[in-house]
Design brief:
This protein starts with about 20 loop residues before the first helix and ends with a helix. Helix 5 links the parallel strand 6 and strand 7. Helix 7 packs across helix 8. It is about 40% helix and about 10% strand. It is an alpha+beta fold and about 450 residues long. It is built from twelve helices and nine strands. It binds zinc ion (ZN). The site of zinc ion (ZN) has 5 residues, from helix 7 and helix 8.
Length: about 450
């Protein structure tokens, strides 16, 4: 329910240097990759032979891609074509080389075992698309990945594990970087479950570990249907494209923290969150997270907007509670291109609750009781942005409840179309919102007095 920004500052870190292998291992590496390299050598020789410049000695053929960019291209290709042998050949140092001294503390410092490579391969092949590029630092790659139609743009993230040296560039592993959001597929086994294709229903995908009952797909379908039935006009994609939903369900709290790339303490009380996966977006790309600076009402996010479920605390939810949770997050996904103005988080959260609580009557009556408990002499006070963050669960709960109740009162007092225009005014903090706030103060005072 809380949302996190995926971009964050991070200190420079030393790159991972390739540790040159001893003779026996180098020979083994050459043997492993010869089949891949031979056609490339032929091209290189022909190029040199036809050059008109002064004679140069032929370059020594490299058994591994010569650069991180070339490695990224080959990795992309072997995954796309299902070339498992080609994939394994990119891990020359995996079995017998100690971790380089400058390795990051992340899992990339540990050479991938055969089992680890199996896991990565299976996970990569479960994705709908995946493209690698050289990363911003030595040892890193950018990865852009999708799981199917609900992803309107790829998730862009950074991974670690490249080692380059005189022999070329290879992989020690594919792993998350310390302090950076990690793809779920480097953290655990994944399968991708998608909803049956339907002309009238937005697409849904769930990324999870495939064990136990598949409880989140139905919740995700209920969530997008609740959003479809709601009026989000003025806040969602003006092209009318239905917003699909991709839900990531980490298998453990450890995996959840790995996805966030940070300590999860602030999210202990968060059932799920919606974010833009843009931490690895190339610098030339437009900003991944839309801002409001140019006044336009909609910016299509440049990277995937997805929901992450917090596995701790959601295991005991009922089916309708799960549906309420994902309907709430699906509103955030549908409105991701139109962020709420500063100070108006309560409007975004209140609208998400308006849609979410249609899925569970008991949660709605609990929210009503919590809002009543928050009544003051002037009625209900719109919560500050800060009251939705931090570790105070009771304060957060009350903030959601008050926001929901305020927008519930707005809808009760105005015709539907007018209520939606006023919600947009509140969301944008436009001049028209001052009068709406005055009305809300009066309506909530009367509602509080009538208890
Ligand atoms: Zn929320």
């Amino acid at each position: 329910m809380g949302r996190v920004r995926s971009r964050q500052a991070r200190p420079d870190r030393p790159g991972i240097r390739w540790v040159g292998g001893a003779g026996a291992r180098s020979a083994m590496v050459r043997r492993l990759v010869r089949g891949v390299v031979a056609p490339l050598m032929l091209v290189a020789v022909l190029t040199v032979a036809s050059a008109c410049g002064p004679a140069r000695p032929a370059a020594t053929p490299s058994p591994l891609p010569a650069s991180a960019s070339a490695l990224a291209a080959r990795l992309t290709q072997v995954v796309a074509t299902g070339d498992r042998a080609g994939f394994d050949a990119l891990f020359p140092a995996s079995d017998d080389t100690p971790a380089p001294a400058a390795a990051s503390p992340a899992a990339s410092g540990i050479a991938a075992s055969a089992g680890r490579r199996d896991l990565l391969w299976t996970n990569l092949r479960a994705l709908a698309s995946v493209t690698f590029e050289a990363g911003p630092d030595a040892g890193t790659l950018r990865v852009a990945w999708t799981v199917g139609p609900p992803d309107v743009a790829p998730a862009w993230q950074l991974v670690d594990g490249v080692v380059c040296g005189t022999g070329g560039c290879g992989l020690r592993n594919l792993a998350g970087m310390a302090g950076e959001p990690a793809p779920l597929w480097v953290l655990q086994p994944i399968v991708v479950t998608t909803s049956p294709t339907s002309a009238t229903r937005p697409d849904v995908a769930v990324i999870w570990d495939g064990t136990g009952p598949d409880v989140w797909l139905a919740a995700a379908q209920a969530g997008v249907q609740a959003v479809q039935a709601a009026d989000l006009s003025g806040l969602d994609d003006p092209s009318g494209a239905p917003a699909g939903l991709v839900v990531e369900v980490p298998e453990s709290y450890t995996a959840f923290q790995g996805q966030l790339g940070q300590n999860g303490a602030d999210f202990v009380w968060t059932g799920a969150l919606t974010w833009t996966l843009d931490s690895g977006l190339p610098p030339a790309a437009v900003s991944g997270t839309p801002d409001r600076s140019d006044g336009a009402s909609w910016h299509t996010p440049a990277a995937a907007v997805r929901v992450v479920v917090n596995p701790s605390g959601t295991t005991s939810l009922t089916a309708s509670q799960r549906a309420a949770l994902l309907a709430h997050e699906a509103v955030h996904v549908a409105t991701a291109g139109h962020p709420a103005a500063s100070g108006r988080t309560w409007v975004a959260e209140g609208l998400a609750e308006l849609v979410g609580l249609t899925q569970d009557a008991q949660l709605a009556s609990q929210s009503q009781a919590q809002a009543r408990a928050a009544c003051g002499p002037g009625g209900l006070t719109p919560p500050s942005d800060a009251s939705f963050a931090g570790g105070d669960a009771e304060r957060q709960d009350a903030s959601y409840a008050v926001s929901w109740q305020l927008l519930t009162l707005l809808r009760a007092h105005e015709p539907a179309a007018q209520a939606q225009r006023d919600i947009v005014a509140l969301w944008d903090a436009s001049d028209a919102s001052a009068a709406v706030l005055t009305d809300l103060a009066a309506w909530s005072s009367a509602w509080c007095a009538a208890r």
